[in-house]
Amino acid sequence: SAKAHGSQKVVRYDSHMKAADLDYKRIEVELRRALVDGTGFEMYYQPIVSTREPSQASRYEALARWSCPTLGQVDPERFINVAETSGLILQLGWLLLDLVCQDIKNVDNTVINLNISPAQLMTPGFAEEFSNRISGYGIRPCRIEVEVTEQIVLRDDITIAKELSVLRACGFSLALDDFGTGYSSIGYLKRVKFDVLKIDRSFVRSSYNSNKDAQMVASMVGLARSLDLEIIAEGIETVQDADCLRGIGVDYLQGYYFGRPVPFKVVEANRRFYQIHDLEAGGVAVLSR
Ligand code: C2E
Ligand code: MG
Ligand code: MG
Ligand code: MG
Question: Could you report the predicted ipTM of this complex, rounded to two decimals?
Fold first, then answer.
């Protein structure tokens, strides 16, 4: 009967939710344990390539990896989400920042894009501490670009806006990540000054096939231009994607086509590191080996 069918559905839904809760709880417990001694975490780096100097990797996005002794390699999306919900992201965030600083402190002039969660920016004084830690390593702020997702627009929190503007005043540049995935952020972009828009890969994926999506990306580029922002397109997987997005006029490309995220020592071994001069002067990166 319809009723039996209905209740069966409810049961299935319930057990599914319990499994997800259990999973969440296990990740939280293991994450908490891992943070006691900080082992098992590593930062990987993915090249971000300028469309004007396509042969040169001008910067890298740092992406967290966690290998748990009992759960194995945990999907970043998953453990970052658990860390955010449980509040562990504050402690984890400082640990990941230390890993990045240790990786790059002895390499000159490399620009790193670093993801920061809304929960971190909700902490009053976050920007100052962030800045102090980085300068403690002797790393200049112009080498770090902070990425925040469009989620912050939805929260529209006064502390977040304040911390973002302090970060920018300290000399860090700001990128709005996953742009176009949900919330209308145009008003927010007028209120909080960003430097870069990162177009989400869901638009990139379809631009090559769909004229409509290509036009949407083109209008995002137009918006970026009028707000004096640069554009990075994420999720470039094929030469067709690269050609299409370059044709539309984005400034930087990122994706598996140019390179998957790899440990820092692999980046160095690949000799993909380039010196970036004149970053402060003129604002245009002049690249050379
Ligand atoms: P995100 O910041 O948007 O990072 C881009 C994601 O797309 C990365 O996933 C990257 O590996 C993946 N990606 C890059 N190129 C391609 C491509 O060509 N095709 C496809 N299909 N995917 C590509 P990842 O490393 O799994 O990270 C997922 C998300 O987890 C990140 O999305 C970011 O929101 C979050 N995350 C990662 N590391 C950190 C971190 O250190 N701190 C914080 N707060 N969040 C982080
Ligand atoms: Mg990102
Ligand atoms: Mg993104
Ligand atoms: Mg994302």
Answer: 0.98
